[in-house]
C-alpha cells in the first residue's frame, strides 16, 4: 500500500490528521523533529516546504505521506520529482505575514497551472482563502471540484494567521472562522475537507463535527520547544479524536439497547 493510500483511508474514516512543518520552514532539524513527532504521535501525514533537502529530510524521518505546500506551480511540479506523496496549494498563513494576499481567482489559476505541470493521479489539495466571502469560497470549491481536486483545506482569517494564538481563548477565536467555513462548504461539495488554523486538541473535535474529514495542525505542534512536547501535542490531538469516536460508539450502543428493550 502506498503512503498516500493510508491517508486516503483516514480521510474516508474522517480521522485524518496532517502535521504542518511550515511553508516557510527550511530549517532541516526542525523539519526532522516535526516529521518524527507526526510519526511517533500517530498522525496521518506531514506537510513541508517545497525544497528538495526539506522533502528529503522529512521522508528520511517518517513513513507517513509527505505533503508539499507552495503557491508556485513549478515548485510543486518539482516537489513531485523530489518524492512528494501529495501537493498542496497553500498553506497561506506564513505568506500573509509577508504581505501577500490571495483571492479566489488567484487560487484557481494556481491550481489550474499546477495540474497542467504535474502528472495525472498526484494527490492534490487546495487551500481556500478564509478572508474571502463564503459565497466566493463555495463558488471556488465548485470550480476546483470540476478540476478533480482531491482535498479542500479551509483556514481562518488572515489577521488571525498574523497574530498567532497563544492560549485556549485565542485558539477558539481563530478556529471558529475555519470551522464555520468548513460547515458551509461541506453543504455544497462532495470533496473531503481538511480544517486548518487554530486547530489543537481542544478544537479538532469541533472541526470534525462541522463536517471535516481531516485537520491540519501547525503551530500547536511545530512551535513546541522539545521533541517530546511535539509528540505529546500530536498524541493529544489523536486522543481527542479517538475520544469522539468512542463517545459515538457508546451512544450508538445505548440507542441500540433502547431499541431492543
Which features does this protein show?
261 residues, alpha/beta, eight-stranded parallel beta barrel, 54% helix, disordered C terminus
Radius of gyration, in angstroms, nearest whole number = 18 Å
- Strands side by side in the biggest sheet: 1-2-3-4-5-6-7-8
Number of contiguous helices: 12
- Flag low-confidence runs: 246-261
**Extended strand count:** 8
For the residues shown, what is the average pLDDT?
88
- Give a short account of the largest sheet: 8 strands, parallel, barrel
Sheet-strand content, in percent, reads 5-15%
Assign an overall shape: globular
How many angstroms does the end-to-end distance come to?
A: 44 Å
Question: Your description of this structure?
Answer:
This protein has helices spanning 3-12, 28-40, 52-60, 73-81, 93-97, 104-117, 134-147, 158-162, 168-186, 204-209, 219-222, 227-260, and strands at residues 16-20, 45-49, 66-70, 86-89, 123-127, 151-154, 193-196, 214-217. The protein is an alpha/beta fold and 261 residues long. Helix 2 runs parallel beside helix 12, helix 4 (73-81) packs parallel to helix 6 (104-117) and helix 6 (104-117) runs parallel beside helix 7 (134-147).
